[in-house]
Design brief:
With 373 residues, the chain is α+β, with helices and mostly antiparallel strands. The protein is built from eleven helices and 17 strands. The strands form three sheets. A seven-stranded mixed β-barrel has the order 7-8-9-12-13-14-16. Strands 2-1-3-4-6-5 form a six-stranded mixed sheet, covered by helices on one side.
Amino acid sequence: MVNETFKAKVRGIYTTALTKILLDNGFRIVQPSMLIRERFRLPVTLEDSCQPDIEIDDRFDRQGVNVVGYASAARKLASILLNLLDDVIVRHHMAITTPIELSGEGNGCQFSPETLGEIMQNIVSPIDMRVRFDIEFPALSKKKLDEIRNTIVPTLSGHHYYKACGGKIAYMLEMAEKLLEKGYSAREVEEIFKECILREYPYESSKISIEHVKINGKIFNLGEARIVEFDDSKQQIRLLRVFSSPGIYDGLKVPKEPGDRAITSMKIGDWFFRTSYFSRSGEYKGTYVNLNTPIELYPAKIRYVDLEADICMWPDGRVQKIDFEKLDEFSSRGYISEKLREIVYEKSEEIINALSVKLEMEIKYLIGGTGIN
C-alpha cells in the first residue's frame, strides 16, 4: 500500500479543515457527506462507496479525532499534522489484524512493544496491520484548523474551540456563521456572538475545575478552585485552592499540610502557569511552574495538555528544571513534534529569567482578600 493513493473517510467537527489537508496531501475522500461534496466540488465516482484506508471521527470530548485504519495511511496523516500543527499530540495505539492465530491474544487486542515485535515478525502482509491514533488538537492546532477551514467556507475565529465547547455555545456558533455566509462582516458577527455567550463563562469569585491532560492521554482533575482575580481584557486569572489533607508537593518535595493555600496565576493562551504555595500562616513554601500547551478556558473548566517539563523555585531562590527528559522522550517517540519540544525549552529559559522570590511573596497578600481564614 506504500505506493498507493490512500482513501480517507472523515466525519465530525473538524471535517472541512481535515478534508482540505487530506486533499492537499494526495489523499482521496470517500463516502463524503453531501455538504463536503458541495464545499469541495467533489465529483461522483465509483470510488465513493469504497472502503477507506483510514476513518477519521471526533473523539467523545471533541478535543481531537480518532484515526482508525491501515498503519501506512494513518502514519502519513500523523506526519502531516505534526509538521503542520505546532501543538498537536499524536497518541499511538497499535491493534493487529492478521490471518494467523495470535495464541490466545485475540485479534484487535492491545499489545506491549515486546509482544508487538514478535507479532510483526510473523505478519505476511503489511496491509494486515491496523492502528488507532488518538490525535489531540490543543489551542494552537484548533486555531490553525480555523484558518484552513476559512479558506473553504466563512469561519468565525475560534470556530473549533467553540465547537468543542458543545451545547449552547456550539449552537450559537452555527447561528453566527450563517450570518457570515449571508455577508455580514466578521467583526460585527463576532461582537454579537461573544455578547451572547458571555454569560456561559465563569467570573470572579466563581468556582472552576482544572483539567490536567497528560501527553499519554491520561486526564487528572486538579480539583475545584475559586477565581480570586479575573482580568477579562488581559485574559489573566488567579485561582485559589485550600488543601485539607497532608501530603508532599510534587517537584518541590516539601510537606503539604492541611490549611495550605495554593495561588495559581495564569493567562489564557500562555504556555505555562505558576502555582505559589503558602502555609496557613502565610509562610512561602515554593513555586511550581507547569509548562503546557496554550491554556484554554471553557465554561466549567480550564484545560491544557501538560508537556511534562516543569520548573521549581524554593524560598531560598534556588531554581531547578524538572522532568525535561520526559518531554524529550515523547518527542523521540513521535507523540509531539520537534518544534514543540524546542518551544518548551525556549519558554523555560524565559520563565527562569523572570522568576523572583520577591514577586512570589507579594502574591500571598491576595489571600487576605478572599475571605478565607
